[in-house]
Amino acid sequence: MSDKIIIEARVNELALRDENPNVPFLPAEIIRDAKACYDEGASIAHYHGRKADGAPEHDAEFYLETNAGIRAECPILLHPTLGYVANDADARERFSAVEEMMKEASTAPDFAPMDVGSVNVDWWNPEEGKFDTTDLIYKNSTATLMYFADRIKHFGLKQYLVSWNVSFTRQIEAFMKMGVIPEPAYVLFCLTDGIMLAGHPGTPEGLDAHTTFLPKDREIVWTVSNYKGNLLLLTEKIVKAGGHISIGLGDYPYAEYGAPTNAEIIAKVVEQARALGREPATVEETREILKMGKVNIAA
Q1: Which of 222, 194, 218 is nearest to 208 (CA)?
Q2: Which of 22-26, 91-95, 156-160 bottoms out in mean pLDDT, i.e. has the lowest?
Q3: Which of 67, 125, 258, 266 has its CA 20 to 30 A from that of 76?
């Protein structure tokens, strides 16, 4: 276990601004937030391409502009999306934006994500007791994941492995046995609350169900998010257990704290981690913890 804690800012995902107007959509807004989060102690920035009205944006130009802008402002590690359920295309097309990003050092990310399994991601409406959607499936076949893993390795990027439930973790373990995933594996436990039922609930028991099934004979660094839930209710447990934290307005508006910015949420996590004896990892310390190598530009 590292004494240092890796803090990732998940700045926008697919969140709208109805509950918090500070969710960034456009490149300039994401660049501003990434720099502010870095200044508060985050070492990784995760974002989704968005249009001015908040709709998903998959055009590679969005990522090129955003990555270059962040690179010009600070050295925070970059973790763009492959589009989540909004980008329901084949493996090659889903990865195509990363291929474009890798053509220049100024636009190259540091991570590429792999959600290691498939899951229903329909929206539950608790007030009406029914689903508002009924056909949203986040599809990640084994063949697709192996394609992603091969291209990620080709470019020297770090795999960012997402586990929504125990079956994902078991797939991660199988991939590690096959040599598809190198050690240390960096795994995000994606807890889910509110209108999203796809993951383990954002409770101590939900997190324990994840960590219980981590393979004991493999080197794994784990972090936690809570999609549609307040992760701050679990951060003390995570910090004490030696885990890392991935948090931001992309997952939850944190309206109970007013209308905070992403940087203000990061500051809360840093304050708590320090009070519990763990300093935020710098960018270089994060690279060391995860044993990240040099990326291959236009390889």
Answers
A1: 222
A2: 91-95
A3: 258
- Provide the pLDDT for residue 87: 55
Q: What digits encode the pLDDT tens for the residues 54-91?
A: 999 989 999 999 999 999 999 999 999 986 655 567 89
What is the β-pairing status of strands 44-47 and 77-80? parallel
CA separation for the pair 90, 153 (Å, rounded): 19
Q: Phi first, then psi: what are they for 265, rounded to 5°?
A: -65, -45
pTM: 0.96
Dist. CA 290–CA 274, nearest whole Å:
21
> Quick one: pLDDT band at residue 250, thresholds 50, 70, 90?
very high
Q: Does residue 28 have a pLDDT over 50?
A: yes
Q: Phi/psi of residue 264, each to 5°?
A: -70, -35
On the question of a cis peptide bond just before residue 184, with omega within 30 degrees of 0, the verdict is yes
Both tokens assigned to 210: 């994840």
What is the SS3 assignment for the chain? CCCCECEEEECCCCCCCCCCCCCCCCHHHHHHHHHHHHHHCCCEEEECCECCCCCECCCHHHHHHHHHHHHHHCCCEEEECCCHHHCCCCHHHHHHHHHHHCCCCCCCCCEEEEECCCEECCEEECCCCEECCCCCEECCCHHHHHHHHHHHHHHCCEEEEEECCHHHHHHHHHHHHHCCCCCCEEEEEEEECCCECCCCCCCHHHHHHHHHCCCCCCCEEEEEEEECCCHHHCHHHHHHHCCEEEECCCCCCCHHHCCCCHHHHHHHHHHHHHHCCCCECCHHHHHHHCCCCCCCCCC
How far is the C-alpha of 274 from the C-alpha of 266, rounded, in Å? Answer: 12
Confidence of residue 14 (pLDDT cuts 50, 70, 90): very high
Contact 33, 11 (CB under 8 A): yes
- CATH code for residues 7-289: 3.20.20.70
Strand-pair category, 77-80 with 111-115: unpaired
